[in-house]
């Protein structure tokens, strides 16, 4: 319980907004920890932080998506291919995703923006195939920002209840998040 209180207290610092921004950039490129994990502590510690934290997550996501796209466009043969072969199956992308994308491109971007489907892998792939970057970033900005705004609002609205839950169940929640991330990586590796 003391550790949870320590994290909540530290997350009230204004510097934590920049930490959320940077971690969300990293999540959009290579991390497999949802941005909501970074957003939760400062908002439940102080509900006045909901708007700046939500904006930081949204901006970080857009910047990270642009960087991941550029990795695909400029560094696909080295860094991009390593990320895709490490966390996915290149043949699956070539045989299934590429043909689907010509038909359902915007819908696929929307799905990766609002679900746990790896946004970073899609961004790299779109850079590789030369998908219009402004369309990709525009759709991503709308739907990722919407996702973070909903989470930010819910944390703001139920701040006291969420604070109590986090303090009471900090370690089970932390362990659950680690297990969920591990299972997600394992599932991605199967494809």
Give the helices and strands, then pairings.
Blueprint: H1 2-10, H2 15-29, H3 35-45, H4 50-87, H5 90-114, H6 119-129, H7 133-157, H8 159-168, H9 170-190
Number of helices: 9
Q: Note the beta-strand portion.
A: under 5%
**Roughly how many Å apart are the termini?**
39 Å
| Low-confidence sequence ranges | none
Q: What is the structural class?
A: mainly alpha
Basic shape: elongated
Mean pLDDT: 81
Q: Count all strands and give the number.
A: 0
Indicate the percent of residues in helices. Answer: over 70%
Q: What composes the largest sheet?
A: none
Order of helices and strands: HHHHHHHHH
> What Rg is obtained from the alpha carbons, in whole angstroms?
17 Å
Care to describe what's here?
The protein is mainly α and 191 residues long. Helix content is 86%, strand content 0%. It is built from nine helices and no strands. The chain has helices at residues 2-10, 15-29, 35-45, 50-87, 90-114, 119-129, 133-157, 159-168, 170-190. α2 (15-29) packs antiparallel against α3 (35-45). The mean pLDDT is 81.
């Amino acid at each position: 319980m003391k550790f949870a209180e320590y994290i909540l207290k530290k997350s009230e610092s204004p510097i934590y907004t920049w930490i959320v921004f940077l971690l969300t950039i990293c999540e959009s490129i290579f991390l497999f920890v949802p941005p909501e994990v970074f957003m939760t502590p400062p908002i439940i510690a102080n509900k006045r932080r909901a708007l700046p934290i939500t904006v930081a997550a949204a901006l970080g996501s857009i910047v990270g998506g642009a960087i991941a796209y550029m990795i695909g466009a400029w560094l696909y043969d080295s860094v991009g291919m390593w990320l895709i072969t490490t966390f996915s199956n290149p043949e699956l992308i070539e045989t299934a995703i590429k043909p689907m994308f010509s038909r359902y491109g915007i819908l696929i971007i929307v799905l990766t923006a609002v679900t746990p489907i790896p946004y970073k892998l899609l961004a790299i792939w779109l850079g590789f195939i030369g998908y219009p970057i402004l369309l990709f970033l525009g759709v991503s900005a709308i739907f990722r920002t919407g996702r973070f705004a909903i989470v930010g609002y819910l944390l703001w609205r139920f701040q006291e209840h969420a604070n109590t839950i986090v303090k009471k169940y900090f370690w089970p929640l932390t362990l659950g998040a680690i297990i969920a991330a591990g299972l997600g990586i394992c599932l991605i590796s199967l494809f």
